[in-house]
């Protein structure tokens, strides 16, 4: 190629098109200016702190240049480093920190200990398990997968949410549903708060309805949590309120009725990574009721589900029969076999309402319509209501055992009855 002086316009040796000359000296000058600016920025962090040009042994690739603040952090003792950075996880472990000494990791270790204790104590071979949702249940599923692999256990898992379903599949466990396994041996789930009477607030993750359905059809409901969830009365630790799943079109009247009847503040839960409110796996909204005093939770739970206070019964088309444990106000996304079992427990027999050859009659709210052929003794107050309230996050008299991972590394247990 023809030699061209810097700053001039020349021609390629093989053609007549003009080419801008290569500005190699100018590029080098810009690179030097950038280096000087990095040095000046690094020197502002404190007297005597000079940036290094290469990483120290063991801190990275040999000869790698470290810009600005990163170079300072690598070359300066921990006590002399500028504030504003807390190392956690693997970075903390590499520098000699125990994961249990840091607030967030301490809680995770507590969750893990509680989950392992519950799985080791209550899970046996040939069981059908209900798998809850949330951050705590991740450790339980991991431990369950370890035991299945080590002990060759035959375990069937019923999920309570999309997250639980993904956990089951990712860990290689057997996935099933309530249609095929309507009766569960054990259900394991987390909680947002647990009081001294084993009443729970659940639903911070938005899966409260399906969690209550699965827990209600289990012979034994086990709860795992860390020390932050343990309290004497609900509301002491959990300040975000009681979640209430509602039909979208009814959230405004339900909000007004809740405030009028029980006081406090009711808020529609808004999504973080999408515009608009949180939508549950059932296609509903969630209201968070922040109560201002301690209540009789059994009465409150029943009263909320009866808003606006009318009992409605239609023998031919029943959205919900009087429930067995755990299914209360709606049959939305409830498996058919479970609702049939609930009808039988209430007296009589439940069957899907079929219109000719069209199959299952489905409402616009994605609930099945059931026909309840009750027996001679008609149940009193069958708790049938088309109120707009789907379910509450109050789990009253459902948990048998609660495992708490404590700060000191131990696991404490609150137990209502042996199971």
Automatic annotation (TrEMBL):
It holds the Pfam family Rib_5-P_isom_A. Pathway: Carbohydrate degradation; pentose phosphate pathway; D-ribose 5-phosphate from D-ribulose 5-phosphate (non-oxidative stage): step 1/1. GO terms for molecular function: ribose-5-phosphate isomerase activity. Residues 27-44 have a biased composition (Basic residues). It is an enzyme of class 5 (isomerase). Its EC number is 5.3.1.6. InterPro entries: NagB/RpiA_transferase-like, Ribose5P_isomerase_type_A. GO terms for biological process: D-ribose metabolic process; pentose-phosphate shunt, non-oxidative branch. Residues 25-64 are annotated as: Disordered. GO terms for cellular component: cytosol. The keyword Secreted does not apply. The keyword Isomerase applies. Keywords: Isomerase, Phosphoprotein. Belongs to the ribose 5-phosphate isomerase family. NCBIfam families: PRK00702.1, rpiA. This is Ribose-5-phosphate isomerase.
């Amino acid at each position: 190629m023809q030699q061209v002086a810097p700053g001039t316009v020349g021609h390629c040796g093989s053609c007549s098109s003009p080419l801008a000359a290569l500005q190699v000296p100018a590029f080098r000058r810009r690179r030097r200016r950038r280096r000087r600016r990095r040095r000046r920025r690094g020197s502002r962090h404190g007297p005597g702190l000079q940036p290094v040009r290469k990483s120290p042994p063991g801190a990275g690739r040999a000869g790698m240049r470290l810009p600005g603040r990163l170079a300072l952090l690598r070359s300066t003792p921990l006590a002399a480093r500028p504030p504003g950075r807390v190392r956690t996880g693997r970075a903390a472990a590499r520098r000699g920190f125990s994961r249990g000494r840091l607030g967030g990791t301490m809680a995770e270790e507590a969750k893990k200990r509680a989950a392992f204790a519950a799985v080791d104590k209550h899970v046996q071979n040939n069981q059908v398990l209900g798998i809850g949702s949330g951050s705590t249940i991740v450790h339980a599923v991991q431990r369950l997968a370890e035991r299945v692999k080590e002990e060759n256990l035959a375990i069937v898992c019923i999920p309570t949410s999309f997250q639980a379903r993904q956990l089951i599949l990712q860990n290689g466990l057997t996935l099933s549903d309530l249609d095929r396994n309507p009766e569960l041996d054990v259900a394991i789930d987390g909680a947002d708060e647990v009081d001294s009477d084993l009443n729970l607030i659940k639903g911070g993750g938005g899966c409260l309805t399906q969690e209550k359905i699965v827990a209600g059809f289990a012979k034994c409901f086990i709860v795992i949590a860390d020390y932050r969830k343990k309290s004497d009365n609900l509301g002491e630790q959990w300040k975000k309120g009681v979640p209430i799943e509602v039909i979208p079109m009814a959230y405004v009247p339900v909000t007004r009725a809740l405030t009028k009847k029980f006081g406090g503040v009711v808020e529609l839960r808004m999504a973080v990574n999408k515009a608009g409110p949180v939508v549950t796996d059932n296609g509903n909204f969630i209201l968070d009721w922040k109560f201002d005093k301690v209540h009789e939770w059994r009465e409150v739970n029943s009263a909320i589900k009866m808003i606006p206070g009318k009992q409605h019964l239609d023998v031919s088309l029943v959205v919900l029969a009087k429930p067995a444990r755990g299914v209360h106000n709606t049959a939305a996304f409830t498996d058919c076999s479970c609702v049939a079992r609930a009808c039988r427990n209430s007296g009589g027999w439940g069957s899907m309402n079929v219109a000719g050859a069209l199959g299952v009659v489905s409402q616009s709210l994605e609930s099945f319509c059931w026909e309840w052929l009750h027996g001679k003794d008609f149940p009193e107050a069958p708790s049938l209501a088309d109120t707009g309230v789907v379910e509450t996050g109050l789990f009253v008299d459902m948990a048998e055992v609660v495992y708490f991972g404590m700060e000191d590394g131990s696991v404490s247990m609150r137990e209502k009855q042996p199971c």
